[in-house]
Every structure is written in C-alpha cells, then in structure tokens.
Fatty acid desaturase domain-containing protein
Amino acid sequence: MACSVADSGFLFLVPKTRPIHSTRINQLASSGTYCLKWESLPQLSSKQKRCLISSRKRNVIQAVAVPIAPSPLDSAEDRKQLGEKYGIRQIGEPLPDNVTMRDITETLPKKVFEIDDGRALKSVLISVTSYTLGLFMIAKAPWYLLPLAWAWTGTAVTGFFVIGHDCAHKSFSKNKLLEDIVGTLAFLPLIYPYEPWRFKHDRHHAKTNMLHEDTAWQPVWKEEFDSVPALRKAIVYGYGPFRPWMSIAHWWLCHFNLKKFRPNEINRVKISLGCVFAFMAIGWPLIIWKTGIIGWIKFWLMPWLGYHFWMSTFTMVHHTAPHIPFKNSDEWNAAQAQLNGTVHCDYPSWIEILCHDINVHIPHHISPRIPSYNLRAAHQSLQQNWGKYLNEASWNWRLMKTILTICHVYDKEQNYVPFDEVAPEEAQPITFLKKVMPDYA
C-alpha cells in the first residue's frame, strides 16, 4: 500500500491489487466521502507505520472519489452521434499513443511510392486541356453562364496547383530539376511563388495541427482576439463567411516577405519571386491589351478566386473539425496528428478528376512522397489496416456549416469555442450563417 500525509492532516491511501481485509467502510452516498476508522486497519510493521503517519492525533481518514468523465471519442455510439452532428461520415477512434508513423508507413504497399512519368504527364495534359476549355467557355458564354465557366476554370487551374504541389514534395518526376521547373511554371498562373510555398508547406507537414507551428491553419487565440478590438469584426468575418477565401490572406502574408525565411532559403525564394513578378509584368498587360480590364477580371481574377475557394476549402476540411485538437509541441504526437487528425473527404467526381485527388489527403500526410495518382490505392490500404482510426466524410452543407460556425477560438478543453459565445455582440455574421446555411448531410 502506497501512502502519504497531506498538509491538512488527512491520510490518503492508494491500495494495490490486493484488497484490504476487515476494514469497516461507511460510505456517505450523498457526498462521496469514505470514513475509515484507524483501529480497523490491518497491522503494519514499524517501518510502514512511519511511512503512513508521523502523528496519530487524527484518527479519521477521508478520501473523496472524483469521477473522471470519459472522452466522447472513446465510445463508438458517441462518435457516431458526433459524426451525424458535424456532417462527418466516420469519426475515427483515438489512435494509441504507442503507434508511430513508421508503423503506419510500413503497412503501405511499396507500389504507392513509385513515380510514373507517364501518369505525371497525363495529369499535366488533363489540367492544360481543362483550363484551355475553361478559357474558351469564358470567351463564348453569355453573361448568365459566366459563373459556371468561372467555376470550371477555377477548379481546372487548381489542378495546376496540385501538379506544383507534387513537384514540391518530389513525387512528380524522377528528374528533380524537371520537377522544379514544372512546379514553378504550374504556379505562375496562380501568382504563387513556388519555393516560398514549398518551404512553408514542408513545415505544415512536419507540424500538422501543432499550436504556433502549423503553417496552414491556426485557430484564433482569445488573447489576440481581445487585444485588437478594431480588428475583431474583421477576424469574425475572416473565420466565418469569408473563410473559403482566407487562403488569399495566407498567400499574401506568408510568401512574399523575405524575413520569414531562413538564410539558406533566401536565394531560391528570390528566384521564385522573380518569376512571379515577371509573369505579372508581362502576362497581365498582355491580357489587358487584348481584352481590357474587364477581360482581366473575366479571364484571370475570377478563376483565381475560384482556385482560392478550393485552396481554402480543401485545407480547412482536411484539418478542421470540432473533435480534432491543436496541441502544444510537448503533447503533440505525429501519428495521431497525421492519421487521426486529418479528414478524408469525397467530392463530386469532376472535382476529383480536375484536382488530381488532392482531397484523398490522409495518405498524403502519412507520406508526402506518394504521388497524387497513387493516393487512392494508398487510402484503400489505410482503410484495410487502420480503418477504425480514420476520419471520413463526403462534402455536405452540414460539414461546412460546422466549420464556419463553430471552429473559431482555441480552447484546450473544448478544442474550439465559437465567436457567438466569446463575443456575442460582434458575432452577427456567425448568427447569420447559422440561420441561412443549409443543414443537409
């Protein structure tokens, strides 16, 4: 029996596996307090007595039982109910602490890591063809069909981003110089500097859902929210109705400031920035010269906004849900963050094709070296070996409503607290979304 004496004079006993015999216990049901009479305890050696207590002035021992509520993720029925509430098809059960990334990676077939230059070229042809078709549709469509043409073209140009994304992860081609060239060119229509994005994105993979460290998304900090009263409304709008375009702010703030990069990264960053500025200096005037300012808006700006819609939406759906925590570095577990803290989401097939399966995202976080054209085979393997731990959804309005109206301010116990609880007087945009957004799942 382990023992200690509290400063208050109470003696707290922690039994081992062998029970205490002949002990009279009077349970006070209303208070949860147990009284043990001293003379009823078993006889102890002098050494044990010295351990138990140094003074026998008190002969009543009190111990208060404090129940610990189980996590709702521990119960299959609770996970099912939470999934229905959030619009998620399956919430995975918690991954054990002793599972490592290596354990998971070793279950994947070797063929999913193989680079196929022919399939990589096919993805380029799909994106070039679909983007060209989109520009043709914009040129020919009457004004009332332009939104459909912009939606198609914005989705098609997202395919260019996915190609550059594979190049950045060295999963596009066996020729590494070719990868950097293709990646840089693929990012140019998006005005995205390839190398700065690559450096930031590598840190996102290394520290997914780590507080302060993840470079993709972070919850709002209450201290920061309270410290900028003039910007509180803008933050509410940014994490509410404008969140599907918040990647624009991320693009601007994180990729053009040389101070945000390490000294050994600066030269490559400058080359990428030079390519982007050259495209803007040459490409934009050509578009305006041929089509005017309205043509620049029609052919470039609107598809670019469509791309950012998918960039923001894919990212927040992959990594944002009320049950997925952000953790400090001393509590963070790589396997739990990548397998158990990433969401797979199915989209309509035309989006899957044009975006090269980037939404099949869990295997990509298990190993970024898996080419996009092998992600589905890798996901099937994860389903077979780790299926009960996976978060899986099909895109639906309830899922989006959950993210836009709940996942706001960081809280260690709840993960997120919505703005309408933190600052109800400024949360009208969130209240509006709750009223007008469909709740279909």
About this structure: Residues 1-42, 44-69 have pLDDT under 50 and may be disordered. Residues 266-319 form the longest helix (54 residues). The beta strands are 2-5, 11-14, 25-28, 33-37, 60-64, 343-346, 391-394, 409-411, 415-417. Residues 318 and 343 are 5 Å apart (CA to CA).
